[in-house]
Amino acid sequence: MTIMTLDMDAEAVRSLGYRIVDRVVTELSDPSNRPPRPPTPSDEVLAMFGGPLPHDGTDPDELLSIIEDHFIPATTNLLHPRWMAYVLAGSLPLAGLMGALISSLNLAYIDPVNTRLAKTITRWLGEMLGFGRNAAGYITTGGTWANLVGLAVARVRRAGWDVRTEGLAEHPTLVAYVSEEGHSCLDKAMELLGMGRNQLRKIPVGSDYRILVDALEETIADDLASGLQPFCLIGNAGTVNTGAVDPLYDLAEIAASHRLWLHVDGAYGAFAAMVPESRPLFSGIERADSLAVDPHKWLNIPFEAGCILVRDWADLTDTFSLIPPYLRAGVVDSEVNLRDCGIELTRTNRELNIWLALRQYGKDQYTQLITNHLALTRQLGAWLEDAEDFEVISEPSLSICCFRFVPPDLRPPTEESEAYLNNLNQEIEMALVEDGRALVSGTQLSGKRVLRACIVNHRVTQSGVEQTLLLLREIGHKLDKQLRTQDR
Ligand SMILES: Cc1ncc(COP(=O)(O)O)c(C=O)c1O
Predict the structure, then answer these.
(1) Residue 185 and residue 309 share a domain
(2) Which of 34, 40, 255, 289 could bond to 77 as cystine, CB 3.0-4.6 Å?
(3) Mean pLDDT of 458-462
(4) Residues enclosing ligand 1, CB less than 6 A?
(5) The pLDDT of residue 430
(6) Are residues 314 and 367 in the same domain?
(7) 136: CA distance to ligand 1 center in Å?
(8) Could you identify the atom of ligand 1 that is nearest to the CA of residue 182?
(9) Are 136 and 248 part of one and the same domain?
(10) Residues 322-380 pLDDT 10s
């Protein structure tokens, strides 16, 4: 028998490690070197990442060269200082490098020291966001998962029967409520938890994209009258489309009067509760039973860093704990064991990076960053209002502003010009990707195709926002001219 390990020569590891660190530093020193979205890769490049199953190994230096020369250039550049698309942030230098340490040592998440980290960061996050000083919680891969856990806990806590053992059959139908601006991951959570998307009632919003409380109350009353069982009310603390924050205090009142679990999706926006001027918007967050937040969004902590906050560790253990005999030996009775608080067994250590970033920057630097982003977004809104070729579609809310390019001679738009404007703005969105100097994304609001700037990336500056607007104007006028010539 040949005894072998997969280890490498120490000097080779060192030299490869230095190459990786050098590449990181090069990218960080010039983050606009690559466009926000990569060009479409050639067939030759794609072929490098295909091919038959390798039987023989390959020299690691060669593999690293392939990654550096061909893979990285074909990937999205989230470090870009004019990245204002989706809700994607730009990573942090130290936490990024820590990722290499975490996976090189396969730092486990099950040890008491990491449980302490988990307890500390959930407590810190709860305090930062005004959820409460003694929050319990679980670090997830992101907001999708955090919301899924929130609804799983809600289902266990409010079903009124042992839903984990008995399931949902032959019991009243469970129904949840969210505004029609709720994130699609909530639909997915309803599907995965077996309750079905139809049982997530989508409540209309007002012109500010916040849930209409009267419509909510009417829907709950109708459902009760039909013999259904309302169990969970979901509030948005920063919707993905427009940054709208629902009236959480009113929702807390309604939840209390119907004994509904109040879950808040603050994956994107809840961090703005740290900023004194926007804190009043989040009034009621302290009454939520669970809160989803994404440190990999506004805190810019590298992916994957999501979190579900709850009031009590038992909310999680009652939902997830299931300890087979082969795991019992390792369980420390007196401690919360993270294995009992979530879905996974083996997983990467997601706690360390969050702790590291919160220690490195502290609440105050993060509050300053978000304060600046809120101000930048208001500035963007003001520039757009003053411009003769842009129209604001959703007023700046938190750090999102939706707008569209409207050629001056098409203002105010008529019913006829609306279709043209939708097409034009869609083309602008795509042309910006091609241009590669900045990126905003797009969405659909009240039937209008709009451009959407969302500032959570810590590298975005005022001049970056200004340059992006100039670029959009340049592209808008050029495309408008082209489209009108084609139409003739
Ligand atoms: C409000 C909101 N909820 C949930 C999510 C899903 O989070 P993730 O992409 O981390 O799974 C997002 C993502 O943008 C979001 O904005």
Answers:
(1) yes
(2) 34
(3) 97
(4) 87, 142-144, 147, 183, 185, 238-240, 265, 267-268, 294, 306
(5) 97
(6) no
(7) 21
(8) 1
(9) yes
(10) 987 777 665 555 578 898 999 999 999 999 999 999 999 999 999 999 999 999 999 99
